[in-house]
Protein: DUF3593 domain-containing protein
Amino acid sequence: MSSIIASLFAKESLFALSLFPYLGFLWLMTKKVKTPKIALIGFYLTLVFVAVTIPVGAYAQITLHKSLADVDLLHGGAEFFLTLSNITIAIGFSQALRSANN
Structure:
């Protein structure tokens, strides 16, 4: 029983399970809330970060026998997509605030 609980709370399981609340968040932001379009694109770009990080992390683990965090070039390339999404979100909300103040 304890091995089942341990595997449920393994970081890989938690990472996969965290996608469901995020997809719900995206659905709500798309359908129910007037989210600035550029910010919404940024939130969707976060999924691109996840989609890139998973295979790159698997490549680092299987081929290089290292954690993704230990391979700077791969890690930096994957983190670029997170940075891109964060900047896009910030620009979207910044533009929305400026237009609301005018």
